[in-house]
Structures are given as structure tokens and as C-alpha cells.
Amino acid sequence: MIGIESEASFERRVVRAADLYGWCGRHERDSEDSRGVHLSGKHADHSCGIGWPDWVFFKPGHPPKFRELKNELGQLSRTQKWYQAKFRACGFDVDVWRPSMWPQILAEFAAAAEGVA
After folding, report:
1. Neighbour-count burial for 11-45, b at 16+ CB within 10 Å, e otherwise
2. What residues have CB less than 8 Å from 47, skipping those under 6 apart?
3. pLDDT by residue, tens only, the chain of 117 residues
4. Which of 39, 73, 96, 114 is the most buried if burial means most Cβ atoms within 10 Å?
5. CA angle, 15 as apex, 9 and 20 as ends, to 5°?
6. pTM
7. CA 56 to CA 44: how far, in whole Å?
């Protein structure tokens, strides 16, 4: 049986692919520890920092990609689902990426490299 790739290993592959295709990224290491980050809004069901997506990938001329990286078994928390829904409602490009989606991930980065948004 083949083991499940760790989230850390998967993240390293995604970052290398982003670099290869000219994307920059910002990583939210721990959305529960937001020291130095100014947040607005506290809601009954969450704080507006916890659950922020792992990565925002950006490249001039293309919409930013808000991505939560999970291994094959990883589940979104309630607050991660909240952010995903709010970002989609704003028209943002938001998704969860898993190792099994590798061909799609490469295609997304490559399409933008070819000028296709």
C-alpha cells in the first residue's frame, strides 16, 4: 500500500510548481496566531482570522488563487468552510487542493503562464 503524502511534502511541490510558472504566493502559517495582522470583524460563529486559506497565489494579469492545501484525508474546519463560502460569494478563485489533483494544479498554473486566465 502506498502511504499518504504529508501536507508539508505536498505544499513543497505546490510552491515549486508555482515558482516554475511565475506565480508568487503568500502563506498563512497559522491563522489562529495572527500577531501583527490586523483583522476586522468578530462574528458569532468565528473570528475573522481563524480559517484563512493556507496560500494566496498571485501573478499580474490573473485573479489571485486562494488555496487550502490538504492531504487526501484532511478535512476543512468549520471556519475554513466559512471562508470558502464567503470568498466564492465575492467571486474569488478559491479551492482546496489535494495531492490527487496534481495534474489539475499544474494545468491551472500552466494555463496562466500561457496567458489563459
Report:
1. beebbebbeebebebeebeebeeeeeeeeeeeeee
2. 39
3. 468 899 999 999 999 999 999 999 999 766 555 554 545 555 555 555 678 899 999 999 999 999 999 999 999 999 999 999 999 999 999 999 999 999 999 999 998 656 544
4. 96
5. 130
6. 0.81
7. 26
